[in-house]
Specification:
Elements (H helix, E strand, L loop, with lengths): L4 E5 L6 H10 L3 E6 L12 E4 L17 E4 L11 H22 L3 E5 L9 H17 L3 E5 L2 E3 L10 H8 L2 H9 L2 E3 H13 L5 E5 H6 L4
Parallel strand pairs: 1-2, 1-4, 2-3, 4-5, 5-6, 6-9, 7-8
Helix pairs in contact: 1-6, 2-3, 4-5
Amino acid sequence: MLPRTVFITGGTGYLGAQLIRQLTKRGHSVRALVRQGSVSRLPSGAMPVVGDALHGLSYAAQVAPADTFVHLVGVSRPSPAKAEQFLTIDLASVAAAVPVAVTAGVKHFIYVSVAQPAPTMKAYVAARARGEQLIRDSGLSATFLRPWYVLGPGHWWPALLLPGYWLAELTPSLRQAARRIGLISRPQMVRALVHAVEQPVSGVRVIDVPDIRKVTLS
């Protein structure tokens, strides 16, 4: 395994902090974008880069020499009431990040998208799909991870739906959708992100819920 030089946006968030701990533990070099005043929340081992995720010029000069860019910025606890924020934060941040990554010579862009198609959260799915398209149009080699809901501290309520998921997976007409929008745990998601960092691709790779669940690390 070759050590990677990784630039992460959203490094103090629900997934980002855990990902940084795992990457630094495994010998990778990490720089993480943080807002002014949030540097103390960044896990040790990562180099803080103070900037604004919505304004690429605020951090563009500090991305190189990263070979990998992991974009984790997004609205916390997405809900239909946050449709406008999906455009002004989720989509706007990736729109800012992509040209920065291209200019910096990044070889592999990793983007946490969302399971699609999906029966609910249409505005969220649409914003993330547009984010994927921006990355495809840039020509960057990329990995898109498509979870639906990531269970973990403070994010347990969908576990109440697990019996319904089990029943749906037993029903042939519902099985595929149930697996595509299944629930995963935060450790499963972090493992999948580490795997994406350590196993870059040429072109575009999609890792959906069933594949996120299967990831193991050597």
